[in-house]
Amino acid sequence: MKRSNEDIVLESLLRNLPQCPSVSFTDDVMRRVAQTPRPAGMSAAALDVPADDSLPWWTRALLEPVTILAFLVAALLAGWPAQLLRWSSEAAMPFAVQWTARMSAFLDPSTATGSWIAILLLFIFGSLVLSYFAYRGSLFPGSLGHSIERAPRRQ
Amino acid sequence: MTWAFPLDFSGAPPVATEEQPESTRKLDEGELLVVRAARGGDEAAFRVLVDRYRDRVYALAIRIAKDSHAAEEIAQDTFVRAWQALPLFRGEARFSTWLYRIAFRRALDEKAALDRRRGRELQSDADMDSFRDLPVPSGGDFGLRRKLERLVSQLPETQRIALTLFYGADQSIEEIGKVLDVPSGTVKTHLFRGRAELRTLWDRERNAGSTS
Q: B203: which chain A residues are within 8 Å (Cβ-Cβ)?
């Protein structure tokens, strides 16, 4: 895309950032630094600073509780743990047994491949949607929602 | 762009990728030594880092909080937290990216508190979302800079932040993604929309000025 002169002017203006007006800013910071001990053995979470990780967002998303929950739900829907559920809940959860048995029956060999693909797509889509809401908190563009944990206010 | 900036205490130079410009690579190597010293507790070295990043952190803070007093408080807090947490910094991202992440989180927190206070105090104020005291960037024409700052303040938050980090703070798209905790594609979208929206506002104001 060809940029006009106006675009170039705007971009050059954007490179000039507002400057900190306080002349004593650095001295003030260093005074506070001198009074602030470094706590030994503290984690990034305890200090409320971001962990210095280089993992991409989708890797971190996979570790989120909602993603794990999505995995579990998708797995239940897929019916592969039906046997496991049947073994573990025969006595206590007859309803679950019936339900999982029904799910297993649904996946008959003639439709198994298509069903598995559909379930896989459903799982991927569901995970993405859950991760999206967990991270952004909102579908509206320009809003960060509640994705960032609020730090405790400094006393 | 991929940045490899390991904090290697064996004295080996940091790994530089082909995509890194020579000038940036030299700056990073010099900064690495300063960060190492500050990490070890050298306050003089940390002072160098504060001097280097104070304006950029302040700019990020004021473009989120839209209040110069709050922005200064956020910037100070950012550096104090960075000082406390520096032993945990392993150098897997650039120091600046890590610092902006701290500033970003702190600024969001402060902005939420400010919005609550303003909501209580200025319920009827139609100008609630505008800057209380507009910051003026350095360099160039004063009027143009002031105009740009006013227009930037009208953009959605994520677009303002993306433009600030990309143009003013020398962050790559991937690094901005880390600061905002969004994928690179989303950062590109914010940048694209932010530029387009800014251009629209700019043209609208120019046309309004020429007709009046």
A: 6
Q: What is the DSSP letter of A48?
A: T
Q: What is the pLDDT of residue B52?
A: 93
pLDDT higher for A63 or B45? Answer: B45
Give the pLDDT of residue B77. Answer: 93
- Copy the structure tokens of residue B51: 């001097």
Q: Which of B75, B137, B181 sits opposite A16 (nearest CB)?
A: B137
**Residue B103 near residue B74, CB atoms below 8 Å:** yes
Q: Are B133 and B104 in contact (CB under 8 A)?
A: no
Looking at the whole model, is its pTM more than 0.90? no
Of residues B60 and B88, more confidence is placed in B60
Its ipTM equals 0.73
Contact by Cβ (8 Å): B4, B14: yes
Mean pLDDT score, B28-48: 88
Smallest CA-to-CA distance from B82 within B109, B55, B104, B111 is with B104
A29: nearest CB among B76, B136, B181: B76
Helix B142-152 and helix A5-14: axis angle, to 10°?
80
Contact B98 A50 (CB under 8 A): yes
Q: Which residues contact B1 (CB under 8 A, 6 or more apart)?
A: B17, B19, B20, B172, B173, B174, B175
Q: Bridge-partner residues for A18, per DSSP?
A: B137
Which of chain A's residues have a Cβ under 8 Å away from the Cβ of B167? 11, 14-15
A100: Cβ contacts below 8 Å, ≥ 6 apart: A79, A81, A82, A85, A86
Stronger pLDDT, B119 or B174, i.e. the higher one: B174
Using an 8 Å Cβ cutoff, are A78 and A116 in contact? yes
